[in-house]
């Protein structure tokens, strides 16, 4: 069939990769983000409020204003605009360079714009982007075999985002519970733990214990989450805590026959990089086996070499019944997520019972195959394990009184800022620390940004440091040096010299 009226021209981006830029009525006159010769994004900027006039680059301030004005306020970003990135480095529209210590919440483990992954994206995009699962495509089967082989599971259920993978696992576990465990229809329970984070969809927030995630979104899905009935407990209900094996023991003792699955993050990411006691996951696995309950490990943040192993559960030699992957499964290049399980579980779902138009699309599969190859061939697990030690040792060596704790595994780490101590010390020096003058971990992140390091609080006073695993050791140590300087700044800077959210 003849191509449509759309024509394409070739252009070279900053990495030398050839891209095809569509030249049609849609792109012209609208905001677009072509890669130009020096790798900078440009947008067309007009005078009448629309970006349809002469070409000019928008400043960080202008871009942030556009987001605030025209996009939902469902995030509270740090005031920095990513325009270009490579490896562990990021540049804003003004050309300022930063060391990325967040990796898009562990999605760019392989480094920003990894040339091999980007090349796979471009090559596949020029060939076939979407077949839908109404038909087969020439990449999905290859991806399915590869991801199964790498992680040691029979089958994959492909999805797009992390939350979708979790939702899919909830459905799969319920189906398994009815078909294989003979739980009476409508009674299956899926247990999780307090302070979990598995995404933002309704089914997923039904399991959350975070009021910000839940309030105003009621009613929730029944029979999922960390609360379970216990007549002996106060109020007749108990909360299953992370890292407390006795809680799961009690829940399964009381409700085991109706429990289809237990869902857990091997390390709680959004809760503040909470590492459970050694042996916890192994004991969880044994309890699940004893009660014929599926163990689902959400490795969306912890997986894919981040903690020094391909999966964090491998630190305890645990093989879950279901593994959830997302984020770095594409190296940050495309949304790809996956549910992994063996046939006896996966085949509980039959044609027509679950799906997604984009799940398993050729672009996602091509990108993901290369993203996995990069993880393995560059041995990023070993690199994460080694650099993680370097990071924790160097931060501890700062000997800052404002560092309450340094914890983590591999390159998934948290530095807990002792805000109380900082404010008490300042108060003792006669300084005002009330209201906006209080020194916080958030302000610490603004100071880091000012000095060229990007990190964010994950939970109150906990700052997560999770750089791309390809980060150079020298850059990691430079980041630690800046962390040290900013800790001093947090205590000693004059109020008038503190960075504000408006400064870019
Ligand atoms: C452990 C975990 N599960 C699930 C998700 C949700 O992933 P997504 O934002 O792609 O839906 C996240 C995201 O941060 C996560 O950390």
Question: How is the secondary structure organized here?
Answer:
Blueprint: E1 7-12, E2 18-23, E3 43-44, E4 55-56, H1 60-70, E5 84-86, E6 89-91, E7 97-100, H2 103-106, H3 115-125, H4 140-151, E8 155-159, H5 162-179, E9 189-191, H6 202-205, H7 211-214, E10 224-225, E11 227-229, E12 237-239, H8 245-255, E13 259-264, H9 280-290, E14 294-298, E15 322-325, E16 337-341, H10 343-346, H11 362-377, H12 380-397, E17 403-409, E18 412-417, H13 419-428, H14 441-450, E19 453-454, E20 456-459, E21 462-465, H15 473-492
Bound molecules: pyridoxal-5'-phosphate (PLP).
Summarize the structure.
The chain has helices spanning 60-70, 103-106, 115-125, 140-151, 162-179, 202-205, 211-214, 245-255, 280-290, 343-346, 362-377, 380-397, 419-428, 441-450, 473-492, and strands at 7-12, 18-23, 43-44, 55-56, 84-86, 89-91, 97-100, 155-159, 189-191, 224-225, 227-229, 237-239, 259-264, 294-298, 322-325, 337-341, 403-409, 412-417, 453-454, 456-459, 462-465. By secondary structure, the protein is of the alpha/beta class. The chain has three domains: 1-57, no CATH class; 139-376, Type I PLP-dependent aspartate aminotransferase-like (Major domain) (Aspartate Aminotransferase, domain 2, 3-Layer(aba) Sandwich), CATH 3.40.640.10; 380-497, Aspartate Aminotransferase, domain 1 (Alpha-Beta Complex).
Describe this structure in words.
This protein has 504 residues and is an alpha/beta fold. The protein folds into three domains: 1-57, no CATH class; 139-376, Aspartate Aminotransferase, domain 2 (3-Layer(aba) Sandwich); 380-497, Aspartate Aminotransferase, domain 1, CATH 3.90.1150.10. Helix content is 33%, strand content 17%. It contains 15 helices and 21 strands. It has a seven-stranded mixed sheet, with helices on both faces. A four-stranded mixed sheet has the order 5-6-7-19. The chain has a four-stranded antiparallel sheet with strand order 17-18-21-20, covered by helices on one side. α3 packs antiparallel against α11 (362-377), α4 packs parallel to α11 (362-377) and α8 packs parallel to α9. The relative contact order is 0.14. The chain binds pyridoxal-5'-phosphate. Pyridoxal-5'-phosphate (PLP) binds next to α5. This is ornithine aminotransferase. Belongs to the class-III pyridoxal-phosphate-dependent aminotransferase family. InterPro entries: Aminotrans_3, Aminotrans_3_PPA_site, Class-III_PLP-dep_AT, Orn_aminotrans, PyrdxlP-dep_Trfase, PyrdxlP-dep_Trfase_major, PyrdxlP-dep_Trfase_small.
